[in-house]
Amino acid sequence: MASTSLKHPLDPLNAEELTQVSSLLKAKSPDKSLHFKIITIIEPPKAKLRPFLKAERNGTAGPPLPRRASALYYHRGTSDLFLAEVNIESNSVDKVEKLDPQFHGQNDIDELIELRDACLKDPKVLEQLAKYKLPEHLEVVCDTWPYGRDSEDNLPRYIQCYLFARSSHPGSNHYDNPLPISPVMDMITKEVIDIIRLPTGSDATLNHDAVFETHAPKEYHHDLQSQPTRTDLKPLIVHQPEGVSFTIDGYLIKWQKWRFRFGFTWREGMVLHDVTYDGRELFHRLSLSEMFVPYGDPRYPYSRKSVFDVGDIGAGVTANNLALGCDCLGVIKYFSFVISNSQGQPVQKPNAICMHEIDDGIGWKHTNSRTGAVSIIRSRVLVLQTIITVGNYEYVFMWHLDQAAGLHYRIQATGILSTAPIDKGATVPWGTNVNEGVMAPFHQHVFSLRIDPCIDGDKNSVIEEDSVAMPMDDSNPFGVGYVTKNRLISKSTPLDSAPNRVHKIINPSVLNKSSGKPVAYAIHSPMKQMLLAHPNSWHGKRARYAFHPFWVTAHRDTELYAAGDYTYQSLPDGKSDLEGWADRRDKTDDTDIVVWHSISLTHNPKPEDYPVMPCDTMVVSLKPSGFFDQNPALDVPQSTQKSNGSKLVEDTALTIAVGEKDADCCAPKSKL
Amino acid sequence: MASTSLKHPLDPLNAEELTQVSSLLKAKSPDKSLHFKIITIIEPPKAKLRPFLKAERNGTAGPPLPRRASALYYHRGTSDLFLAEVNIESNSVDKVEKLDPQFHGQNDIDELIELRDACLKDPKVLEQLAKYKLPEHLEVVCDTWPYGRDSEDNLPRYIQCYLFARSSHPGSNHYDNPLPISPVMDMITKEVIDIIRLPTGSDATLNHDAVFETHAPKEYHHDLQSQPTRTDLKPLIVHQPEGVSFTIDGYLIKWQKWRFRFGFTWREGMVLHDVTYDGRELFHRLSLSEMFVPYGDPRYPYSRKSVFDVGDIGAGVTANNLALGCDCLGVIKYFSFVISNSQGQPVQKPNAICMHEIDDGIGWKHTNSRTGAVSIIRSRVLVLQTIITVGNYEYVFMWHLDQAAGLHYRIQATGILSTAPIDKGATVPWGTNVNEGVMAPFHQHVFSLRIDPCIDGDKNSVIEEDSVAMPMDDSNPFGVGYVTKNRLISKSTPLDSAPNRVHKIINPSVLNKSSGKPVAYAIHSPMKQMLLAHPNSWHGKRARYAFHPFWVTAHRDTELYAAGDYTYQSLPDGKSDLEGWADRRDKTDDTDIVVWHSISLTHNPKPEDYPVMPCDTMVVSLKPSGFFDQNPALDVPQSTQKSNGSKLVEDTALTIAVGEKDADCCAPKSKL
């Protein structure tokens, strides 16, 4: 088909292709109404893709690999779930597979709106609400939550509802009024099958006679603040008078020796493909594989409260429409995508990723104190940003690429705490009271960053490096010596952290000219507490990946999601998740491997996190560690006042003036 | 005296005062030549200072407390060291104390230049160098290092020299040519007392017949690069058309509800005093107390290689003259200071601290996905920066103050690796070869951040908080519950880290209205490996503070420096350093305490760190943790495109245009 003839095999599906796929599948089942969950590009198998990408980089590529798509859909109103594969080029359905009934599809917004509406029309729910005696100015809203799991039984696809009350303002904080009942719904019949009374005291005791008690609201929206807004913040503008330093060709980006492609999927959101630096291969694919948010309140039904934000909800479908000057400051490039709705129609995801440059302080500096010669560069960073809203929470996901060949995955958590009702005067040891009647339970966020490396080629290994004090003996008579010890990870396995332990991805066949050791990229990430839930709990069984910070597996095309393909009410089989793949004990030395990093944020709320939470930031860095023979940012031009156009604050009392005439501000100064 | 009548008791000494102090002391010893080490302000005792600062904040202060200064000096050419106290107001010497001969003064640049010159004129040194057969275009330079310590003996004040060769260019990297001899000098006589042959093989064997072997140089200076400079980096300018958001009154700064004073001392460099937020007291004094850099090469004389960069050298005296557009980008306020030289004369330290605002991404955000209402603020940060050059290394020290009442101490290490000669083909397990003949040994940097808190007043305590899984029992039948456990630190002691363990400074008498718990600031810092040297090694004995990441002591005015007042060739007595103070087991609950944080950077060099090292960054955050009832940045104005003036990259192919008309870019969007 003409529409695809020039498209890259990794480019996300466009609107036309999405419609083509859903139309084909609808035509194949004319007697059924299809409820689409996901329609997405099928990336070519790595065995074909890697040579294609290499040839493309060398300018010797043949015709693009064929574009194919997959679709996950229900027969509407049933639990019959299908996975289809479509060849877009030939406009044909290659395969349709009916999935095992234990597997459930993701949530989707069309479905959730129907469920929310049905919940709040249910007579039994209305009856309970009436007994709670809400004041008239408040309306009830329903937040849906994945049901989680609390038994071995294969339950129908359920959803758990938490109810809140809000005022009519569009920015009203409904989390400030959590209600003490929680309906459970069947997602097929859209019926309320149970209404659970939530515990609201200091223990699991239930109070069936609770009525609404008013309290001073805590609102996050600017219109609703009682205190005045600060007036002393002056504008700060980032200006690039000669334009940006990157080039864009479709989804192919080049900037400061970096070259990579964007991808964007319903489930993972932003994906980076085929990342090279100065023509050398680094990473085949970088993606957010999963994210699990378990809550630490031990009481039923909170014991089920947990969500796979990637697998149950999706990081692409929830991507924000980023706004110039608000989400992104400076000179901004936006990328927009399309995803499917439940009808299989294309829906715009405008400005789902933004890209821009920032100044990140000093890159490197040295002053020769004998001669006064100053050498200095500023550090310019390329920022790729996407923000998702998952119910109450916002997550900012960023890649920062620097000029010294470092990639930094930056996660920021913001938004609103998930809240629960609590009686006046009560406290619990697993949560923090953030307003009268409002408790924010402790919880964790465990992200899984999937790193598919190609450090100077496909055959890589992982080593674990520790710094170890030498024993105080003849070879270390003064007791000051220390060395590094390396462990080669020869079989697929989880790996643990230790203070200063560094995990490095190496290419054992390529030696660094300076150090004589295999070229390597190191993963720098602070040591964190991993999943606190018991390994035999359902949280523990369903999110095995969250117990260890690092995992190494042998690459397989189908293994993209750390908690498995189907996380909704998942019943793990011990084979279809990261632990299962690691348990194969595949060879992982000098071969095509994948490294998975579980990034854990233990979030015990504090009052300052409410009613909206200042960004909490975590950074994982992938940095060259013996990959280059010397500092790769050595060729960045010396910083000069001329190019940076900085200004002095006009207060000369304490300042030695450096005027604009000092354009060559870093020239040698007087000798010491 | 008129010159001081309006000065604040915490303001650094000015040139006139410095001259006054040295003149007074010179006049007192007319028959002696004085060699000044340090002349610095004596801060008033805390018992007097705190009420004064409080009254000043309330506008009820009486006359300033008297300004006093201390001076540390030798009788020139002797080892007689004196500490004097001078009352500037009354122009009188209050006290002169001759110090115990075991104590030595810091290095100073006047002295080091003399020693370097004398070393390179020494006939025995010249003889050894002649045997090494350096090519004619290279000149020898001498880097002095504190001698360290290797026995219980009270040696004279020694200095260790490491020699290098360099070309004539002012930016020539002499660390690329480390020479295999190391003279030791007596600092009084300025004589070379020993010339140590450095081990250059894979073990401690010495090669007395080594001659210079040429290799391809690695240079960091832009003039000396063989590869071309990048040409595709476009200017990025930070512009504040309406000026900055801070106000300056002498050394008193106000910005976004913050109020604090700058200090600057010869030894500590930048100091923050009397830090409040929104009128509430947070920190009485924040300073870099010490910094120890021990090397991990076990061989003599490298076993002595170590330096207290604060105590032996000084973080104020080595502060760089920061340059507009190079060290600092944007609209910049500089602060300049004076220090003394060895003659007691004032020496300018121009632009030793810079202050400016940056945009730091998103402050907080929430999208109400029902109504589409977006609430978002950008995060503006106030940056205070000072950069020091200590021989080969540069350190960037920054405080980042944010709008959510967080303070972030940011340390960046850059500059050049300390190098050692190594034979062709040899490798060592305690270092990395970074060029032919050039080995960079493993080492650590352990900083000590001294935190003198006043969280809502003087009487504070420290608690250690851990997140702990509940046992799987009747109160936690599903195995998902977890709680926090707190330990109150009631007596002075070191404290250790654990993953996610948080140390909080609390005021037990002030309860948070929301949580009901004592108001608190938390110290967030990743868990790191502490000092690797053996506790019985001299490194271990001299830098006890470096074995534990946190320490709590009862406040005493005289206890400012974690490794003691006199670190040069120090012989610890078990009482005059942080361990000694902690060992007193003073009450630290609900009283005036000091918290010390040892920040450890284990640096095992990689080829990318050479010939100049991209900044390696560490951040320690002091964040409100139940100090406020709600998000303290709630009143920051909503971000708008109008105030931020961002631009779109002019490529509309993939972009949904957001023009300047969308000034209110975060207004409610269409309903989901």
UniProtKB/TrEMBL annotation, chains A, B:
<feature type="domain" description="Copper amine oxidase N2-terminal">
    <location>
        <begin position="8"/>
        <end position="72"/>
    </location>
</feature>
<dbReference type="GO" id="GO:0005507">
    <property type="term" value="F:copper ion binding"/>
</dbReference>
<keyword id="KW-0479">Metal-binding</keyword>
<comment type="similarity">
    <text>Belongs to the copper/topaquinone oxidase family.</text>
</comment>
<dbReference type="InterPro" id="IPR015798">
    <property type="entry name" value="Cu_amine_oxidase_C"/>
</dbReference>
<dbReference type="InterPro" id="IPR000269">
    <property type="entry name" value="Cu_amine_oxidase"/>
</dbReference>
<dbReference type="InterPro" id="IPR049948">
    <property type="entry name" value="Cu_Am_ox_TPQ-bd"/>
</dbReference>
<protein>
    <recommendedName>
        <fullName>Amine oxidase</fullName>
        <ecNumber>1.4.3.-</ecNumber>
    </recommendedName>
</protein>
<dbReference type="InterPro" id="IPR016182">
    <property type="entry name" value="Cu_amine_oxidase_N-reg"/>
</dbReference>
<keyword id="KW-0186">Copper</keyword>
<dbReference type="InterPro" id="IPR036460">
    <property type="entry name" value="Cu_amine_oxidase_C_sf"/>
</dbReference>
<dbReference type="Pfam" id="PF02727">
    <property type="entry name" value="Cu_amine_oxidN2"/>
</dbReference>
<keyword id="KW-1015">Disulfide bond</keyword>
<feature type="modified residue" description="2',4',5'-topaquinone">
    <location>
        <position position="393"/>
    </location>
</feature>
<feature type="domain" description="Copper amine oxidase catalytic">
    <location>
        <begin position="238"/>
        <end position="634"/>
    </location>
</feature>
<keyword id="KW-0560">Oxidoreductase</keyword>
<dbReference type="Pfam" id="PF01179">
    <property type="entry name" value="Cu_amine_oxid"/>
</dbReference>
<feature type="domain" description="Copper amine oxidase N3-terminal">
    <location>
        <begin position="109"/>
        <end position="195"/>
    </location>
</feature>
<dbReference type="Pfam" id="PF02728">
    <property type="entry name" value="Cu_amine_oxidN3"/>
</dbReference>
<feature type="active site" description="Schiff-base intermediate with substrate; via topaquinone">
    <location>
        <position position="393"/>
    </location>
</feature>
<dbReference type="GO" id="GO:0008131">
    <property type="term" value="F:primary methylamine oxidase activity"/>
</dbReference>
<dbReference type="GO" id="GO:0009308">
    <property type="term" value="P:amine metabolic process"/>
</dbReference>
<dbReference type="InterPro" id="IPR015800">
    <property type="entry name" value="Cu_amine_oxidase_N2"/>
</dbReference>
<feature type="active site" description="Proton acceptor">
    <location>
        <position position="309"/>
    </location>
</feature>
<keyword id="KW-0801">TPQ</keyword>
<dbReference type="InterPro" id="IPR015802">
    <property type="entry name" value="Cu_amine_oxidase_N3"/>
</dbReference>
<comment type="subunit">
    <text>Homodimer.</text>
</comment>
<dbReference type="GO" id="GO:0048038">
    <property type="term" value="F:quinone binding"/>
</dbReference>
